[in-house]
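We close this part of the discussion by returning to an individual protein. Part of our work consisted of pairing the sequence of a single chain with a tokenised description of its backbone. The amino acid sequence and the backbone structure tokens for this protein are reproduced below.
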Amino acid sequence: MTATASQRTIRNPQIGDAVTFLTTAQESGGAYEWVEVRLQPGGGTPLHYHTTFEEEFEALDGRLSLDCDGRTLLLTPGQKAVAPLGSKHRFYNQEKTEIAFRVKVLPARSFEKFLRMQYGLARDGRTGANGMPKSMLELAVVIRMGESYLIGPPVWFQKGMFGLLYLIARWRGVERRLLATYCPESEQQKGADERYAGIS
């Protein structure tokens, strides 16, 4: 069963975390996306970077671990840190209990669509043990929405490989299906081709 577009909180049963949309891109006019994350022990992201937006982290409950450009930060409730554009970073939970923190993405880009697709595919059993979509075409769409790059393979290689797969996914209707299944109806009606023409 998929979540409806109007739900503010989405959950990933595979890793047990939850994201609540506090301010959406539509509500901020695209300026930012603001979410609250509840992260289980051992949860987190691999080291990655973004070329189109930065992230501001604020710990709320428990201690949030954040690696950023070779430094490791341990944020306690009320403390904040920024992962600037292009910085190599990851966040994770080293505690023995669930933690909560907020993330502001500036500008918003397609962050909400990325999360709704990723979590929706996980709920529907369409992701592997690593949390990534099993289908390469669905993976290409998710990567396109998230605009995140892993450390290791050159960015030109990642953009080229997944860019080609994304074009195939769009041609075969995979992107439109994922938007219709997991993303807000108001966004679906705008037309996928026009909305994502500027994503790099």
